[in-house]
Amino acid sequence: MKQVLILNITRMGDLIQMIPLLGRLEEEWPGVGIDLIIDKEFAHVASLLPGIRQVLAYDFQELMDDSRVCARDVVSLYRDLAHWAQPMLQVGYDRVVNLTFNRRSAFLAKYFGCADERGMTTAHDGSFLVKNSWMKYFLDLHAYRQLNRFNIVDLYALGGSGSGQFHPIRLEVANGLRDWARIFLHHSGTPKHWVAVQVGASDPMKAWRPEYFGQLMAHLSTKRNIGFVLIGTKKEEAAVKESMQVYQHAGGQGPLCEAVGKTSIPELLALLQQCQLMVTNDTGPMHMAVGVDTPVLNVSVGHVNFWETGPFGPGHWVVQPDIVCGPCGFDKVCPHHACKDQIIPQEISELCLHILSGDVLPKFSSKIRVYESTIDGDQLGTFALRAGHEPNLTTWYGTYWRRYWYELFAGRDSQCPPIESSSPNQFDDVRMWEQLAPQLDTLCERAEKVLQLCQQRPVPVQQLKETQNLLKCETIDLKELTRLSLAFGPLVGACIRETFNLEGQTLRSMAEEYTRVFHTLRSGARLTFEQLTQYSPEPPRRNLYVGAIG
Prior knowledge:
Layout: E1 3-7, H1 12-17, H2 19-28, E2 33-39, H3 43-46, E3 54-58, H4 60-68, H5 74-85, E4 95-98, H6 103-111, E5 117-122, E6 128-131, H7 133-140, H8 152-160, H9 177-186, E7 193-198, H10 210-221, E8 226-231, H11 237-249, E9 256-258, H12 265-274, E10 277-280, H13 284-291, E11 296-299, H14 306-309, E12 317-321, H15 338-341, H16 345-357, E13 368-375, E14 381-387, H17 392-410, H18 426-455, H19 461-482, H20 489-498, H21 507-533
Parallel strand pairs: 1-2, 1-4, 2-3, 4-5, 7-8, 7-10, 8-9, 10-11, 11-12
Antiparallel strand pairs: 5-6, 12-13, 13-14
């Protein structure tokens, strides 16, 4: 029997989003034994996950807190962690999958000494490495977020296992809790439909305004016999109260069931199963609703990109503001939150009616985009635009890179329809290639020179330093040249990241890796250029530099 250890020590939503990975592992290795390491704070969530043989909980938050305040020295803290993990060394895992990108999980992943490591780990000198192409892509997501078309759920499954059939998020409600949930709701009323509403979020940046939730509920309650289940944590209580006050002042007619901070995780799951719809920000409970087949309407604002973390699988909806600055970066502090004001509560209410009762899909203002979730030809989750407009460049390059990365990493042809038009930015792409191609030739030659110097005995240290410095400067120039290029920037960014992800232990082996990285980039860039221009109605200009690539 194959045995796999998964490390996932961050948030509740991340645990639920790894469920398809569990199904993919079972598909890959029938009867596989899967153990899971988590932070003890989320033990109650881990108990809901299907297919887990053993849940192993450790107080990683305490480890981090003690380290930050220097309550104990780092060495003793990690010795305690190693002592806790020591019994697991006897298992002999066939694969260790680290879904958490921090130093604690990286050290722990390496501790098990497994030949098949995926995700963040460490090299022999203690530096950090990321293994597996999909996990490396996960790390690069932030650089070109507007072009990403992979849900984190699929990245977990592809990186931790591989390609395969579609596996949904599935969660089971514990015995007896269905009846408990029905009784809990019955105390508040007996409407035809219950709609769960999560007003708050772990980060206020990604939460729609509470008053808009109140207006949405009020408008919806005048159209149908609907009651609302308000959920969330105690920290979100003030926002929920505000939305309830707005609901009442706006003439809301349906019953309200206020469940904020009043349920356990299994009880919340049971309540969500009794609802016919959930309207929410990007939250952990959103994924719980998906897991019990409750349709989700996700209001995607702030720094949230629904392509990354939106509701997974068919039958869900996303509303995204059509605004130049959105989704904003995780490091941004927004002075206006204008994206939240572009979403009109009454329009979202009409969309809710479409989801609940099959009413005609309403018309929307030009300030939003509306998507429906579905499954694509590669058995991955995706989203189809149902209303609004995407920028042509974002749509074209997003589709291109989705296919490119899948075929490169999965090693198979994509079953998604190919693009049958040239880049809409073809003129600029051709000009970029004219500058890029000779630079790539120079970088490959420089890397080869470094390799030659590393092979000499004795090593000419001064000459090696000078050549390495030139290579470093030329790499920086390459990054700056392509920084804003949707055609070549993602490829160059992945290459430069790879130069910091070397496993070699000698000068020569590291130089060999470095050289391979730049040769791979040069080949990939040429292929990209050919694909970008293959449908051009006119042949490339005669003076176009194509270089000696291949």
